[in-house]
Amino acid sequence: MNKIHFFILYALIIGLAGWFYYSTTTQAQPAREVVIRNEATGQEQRMVVPDFTRVKLFDTPQNLTFAGEPVPLDQQDILERLEREIYVNAYWNSNTILTMKRAGKFFPIIEPILEKHHIPNDFKYVALVESGLMNVVSPAGARGFWQFMESTGKELKLEISNEVDERYHLEKSTEAACEYLKKAYGRFGNWTSVAASYNMGITGLTKRKNEQLMPNYYSLLLNEETSRYVFRILAFKELFENPDIYGYEMDENHFYKMPKLREVTVDDSINDLAKWAVEQNSSYKDLKTYNPWLRSNKLSVKKGRTYTIKLPA
Fold first, then answer.
1. pTM (2 decimals)?
2. Residue-range domain boundaries for the chain
3. Boundaries of each Transglycosylase SLT domain copy (predicted)?
4. CA distances from 47 to 34, 36, 39, 234, 247 (A)
């Protein structure tokens, strides 16, 4: 065999070996499309996953509390209900990551208001479970981070009209939520029941306790939504306080931040908010982004009334 034939054969062997290695190591694994449904919100997400997907099992949290009150994880049904919510949210990666990032923007606003009213810090997770920290509208018509119905919002002194809806005002709606939570605590005397009542109402929870002769939330047989409600809160608390355990490696720079804002006091009506925003060296988009409680393109101001509008500094 001459040298030319030798090198051709050598190159052919090397090429075949490389092709074989590439085809066996990079060949797509069998995959299938699945629909993942977030049981907490009902939202669905389509994903393509390998047939050989491996999942991690998590250790059961130890000494878990809500607002300083212990969760009876020694009871099997309590443990199962908690794990259900942890796995549902820990493995809905995109939603949980975005919720964590969003919390960096809004928790610093909610937390000092809770503290001012002597409400345990864990109640920030109520707003998270209610709305995902977004100004959403429920099928029943509840709105804002704290999901107030119109009648409840007005009872709590929030202004609700065609032009202004303070259910979308984070600070004012959080103040209103604190008033409700304090009232509920005066009725029940424990924070876990207060959290449950935020879902089914003070009257509804009181009725169930009286019917079943059980004062403890964890001992009550409730409807599916309220039965899971507190456990959703607990699951997010666990995920947020121990993200590394569940595979979420979040650094401070990963969280969204609220930009520096300036406040403009308004005591006269504004007929055109877009024009007014430009006059303030801002834009209509920024005006509506940082003041979602403004629900129209104008603002009517009654005599003696003032509004504070936030714009980027």
1. 0.82
2. 3-50, 65-254, 261-312
3. 110-211
4. 5, 7, 16, 27, 19
